[in-house]
Amino acid sequence: MESTSLNRSPGQYIRSLWHPFLWVPLVVLVAGLTVTAFTAEQLANHTRILAEHAYRAQHDALVNRLHAEAVAQSPERQVEEWLASVFSMPYPSLAAIRVDTLERHTKMPLFQTGPLVPLDDSRSLRSEINLDRHHWLITTMPDNTVFRQRANTARYATWTAGTMITAIGVALTLFLSARIHTLSDQLSDRQLASEKLDQQLGNMQVEKSILRQALNDSEQRSRDLVALSGAMIGELDEQGCIGFISATAADWLQRAPADLSETPFEELVAPEHRANFRKALAAARSEKQMHRIDLELLTADQDENIVPATLRILALQDPVHGFAGYRISARPSAATT
């Protein structure tokens, strides 16, 4: 049986895919990318905030260290060299460190690390330090590149993981959608085939009813013809036993047809004619032609009523099994009519 899906045009096939089986992968793709983008930005912002907190903690640690070093060794002379020794350790998150004195009005710092060009101090932190003889202002400026790198790292990692998960989800959804689409087509084909079979079955039922009616009409016609002919019709098996005999037997022999079933027909023949009857059966079987014989049939009251009859015998031939019995007809002899 040819599938109906083979008869579709490319445009119809594409439209059938989009209704509705490709909507689910599309929704998974859009939802996955949307969630990934939102999560990436949230993690990037959170990483930036953590970096800013780390920068504040580093600024506080720097101020505390300056206090501790001042207590251990008071900076009386060569303050610039003393500050350079205190801040000799690297600070990766700081772009610049600057120490200004508040004791006199000057724009020149006591100490400065980092580039000399002006920096964006929107995120810079300042703290005043009061020592015994010094009043300083320490300013730290963060390295914005570090903030961006950490935020971008979090963003890229989130996008990578989200994209992989979304791709896997879309691939699985596409596979399942294609499978559902194939099963749907097969189901449609099965339903169409079932409808065709139902239609054929209905046609066969109608044909069967017509044939049954024709057979009933034929049987009724045969019974009518047998009844109108006045002959006694019967069928014998291979051994000559009665398999069927018409209702005329009740009129002729005063015996019901049902009582004669499986009875050897030879028992209905007068004893003096039985030898000729057997010869007629053998001749009909061997010559495969209809044979005629005149004989006398016995009624239920064998002592009083004997029916002279003309018996015609025809051997039946089955295409598969060969010989299959006899068909006979009996009419009253001319002497009795």
From TrEMBL:
<protein>
    <submittedName>
        <fullName>PAS/PAC sensor protein</fullName>
    </submittedName>
</protein>
<keyword id="KW-0812">Transmembrane</keyword>
<feature type="domain" description="PAS">
    <location>
        <begin position="220"/>
        <end position="286"/>
    </location>
</feature>
<keyword id="KW-0808">Transferase</keyword>
<feature type="transmembrane region" description="Helical">
    <location>
        <begin position="20"/>
        <end position="40"/>
    </location>
</feature>
<dbReference type="InterPro" id="IPR013656">
    <property type="entry name" value="PAS_4"/>
</dbReference>
<keyword id="KW-0472">Membrane</keyword>
<feature type="transmembrane region" description="Helical">
    <location>
        <begin position="156"/>
        <end position="178"/>
    </location>
</feature>
<dbReference type="Pfam" id="PF08448">
    <property type="entry name" value="PAS_4"/>
</dbReference>
<dbReference type="InterPro" id="IPR035965">
    <property type="entry name" value="PAS-like_dom_sf"/>
</dbReference>
<dbReference type="InterPro" id="IPR000014">
    <property type="entry name" value="PAS"/>
</dbReference>
<dbReference type="GO" id="GO:0016301">
    <property type="term" value="F:kinase activity"/>
</dbReference>
<keyword id="KW-1133">Transmembrane helix</keyword>
<keyword id="KW-0418">Kinase</keyword>
